[in-house]
Amino acid sequence: MSLQFILTVTLNGLTLASLYFIVACGFSLIFGLMRTVNMAHGSLYMVGAYVGFAVYDPLYASSAWASQAWLIGIVAGIGAAALVGLIMQVAFLGWMQGQELRQALVTIGLSIIIADQILATFGGNPFRFFAPDMLFGPVEVPIIGRYPVFRLFQVILAIAVGVGLWLLLNKTKLGIIVRAGVDDRQMLAACGINVPLVAATVFALGAGLAGLGGVIGATAQPMSLGVDVRFLLMSLVVVIVGGMGSIGGTALGALLIGLAEQWGQVLFPTYSVILTFVIMATVLAVWPQGLLGRKPT
Fold first, then answer.
1. Taking CA atoms, which of 46, 179, 185, 199 is between 20 and 30 Å from 148?
2. Burial of 6 per CB tally in 10 Å (0-12, 13-18, 19+)
3. Parts of the chain with a pLDDT under 50
């Protein structure tokens, strides 16, 4: 096994971890911080990808808008996922706070409805975005050789998302309100804060991140129906491993799962999926709150 091969597999794991991080960040905001059980997070990923592609495809075919089509598709994907997430929170989940089983059952039902509506509206054919010219093609990486520019862009985007969320949660008034709401929602409401509005805003932000991940994921590899279950499970595993509500923990969890998945496919492809859940079971046994999660007080 050459050094070039080892570094290539590791970099593949890092780029996969970047995609998992972008999607799981939204799940961490909704499930980890707001304590809302959203089993339709993978469906929001698909909504972002499909709506983004519905906007992107005709623009890419036109000579006037082809160069901006991908960016417009991203905006459309984020907006559509955020809107669906906002409707879910306001219409269904907002008045079920603290009823985890009820939220889980409702969001499972919503994920089935969303998948059926996507199939009825867009059909079952797979599709893929074409990255803009500046992110298209390979670039020379030391030791590894030629490597897709877009995959490196995924890593940079994930870092930007992580830094942005950390600043939002730790350096802004909204972040202070969100963290205070996790500890004591009743006290927050007594201080005059519109808690339902804050919850809806955070849910829409988390859903928008899932939509962003959908467009990025559909640019890196073909998109088809059924990926919602995969990304829901991966988001759940990443947040459990890293620690609920922790952006740093989500990044660490995504890194471990991404590397484990890539190296598992190389070393023992038949059992690579099991490795992911072995990591989750081990973390739960030793650190029940996750690697960087906050211990219960």
1. 46
2. middle
3. none
Rounded Cα distance between 64 and 50, Å, is 22
Return the closest-CA partner of residue 22 out of 179, 174, 235, 223.
235
Judge contact between 37 and 232, C-beta under 8 A.
Answer: no
Give residues with Cβ within 8 angstroms of 83, minimum separation 6.
Answer: 204
Quick one: pLDDT at residue 297?
59
Which residue spans within the chain are E strands per DSSP?
138-141, 145-148
User: Which residue from 92, 77, 118 is spatially nearest to 39, judged by alpha carbons?
Assistant: 92
Q: Which two tokens stand for residue 72?
A: 């417009």
Supply the pLDDT for residue 88. Answer: 92
Which secondary structure element, helix H or strand E, spans residue 88, and what is its range?
A: helix 69-88
Contact (CB, 8 A) for 242 and 251: yes
Q: Cα–Cα distance between 286 and 55 in angstroms, integer?
A: 46
Phi, psi of 139 (to 5 degrees): -135, 155
